[in-house]
Amino acid sequence: MLNRLYANHLKRFFDFCCAALAIVCLSPLLVALTLLGAVKMKGNPFFTQPRPGLNEKIFRLVKFRTMTNEKDASGNLLPDDKRLNAYGKFLRSTSLDELPELFNILKGDMAVIGPRPQLVRDMVFMTPEQRKRHTVRQGLSGLAQINGRNAVTWEAKIGYDLEYIRKITLLGDIRIILATLGKVFKRDGITEEGCDTATDLGDYLLESGKITREQYDQGQAEAKQLIASRLR
Fold it and tell me: How far apart are CA 73 and CA 75, in angstroms?
């Protein structure tokens, strides 16, 4: 009874209070990173991206920018590893790039704890069972993040998400918050070994032979259509 009361009614209040308190306490850091980011990224220090949230409603997630907008002679963006500079690597390794998501939490797009909001192009490759992870607000951190973050397989990551939504409790959320802080201080599990960024689910499924090129292309097209239709 108490767990359902928390999950269905009190969790949103808890999230709002935590985010508001964090923004007030971290406001000097947020201002400093905004100014420093404008210099290091030579422009807008923020990065926004469409992500599927509660009930697959697409919202704009905001983070501190970690990659520049450098382009080649043809006007195409350079590969991620070329645009991820030392400052961006520092932000990622300390998870400071995630701090602007506190405003997503205030707005109600996200929760403090929940499944991490993945890309729309990841969601379209999930099974119907896996997409149940979107039946709750997506979180700043979650069960998957304290059990390996980007260093675990996609199957394990989504498995942790589904495990979390089956039993949401205040005590469980507090434990994940404390474990997350420990992970952040240790800079543990930020990216996959040998990668600057995590592999998309579609790319992973294609490379492992679990989907065909045709299915991959169809999924990418579906993701683009979803973003175009839901962000009008």
Answer: 6
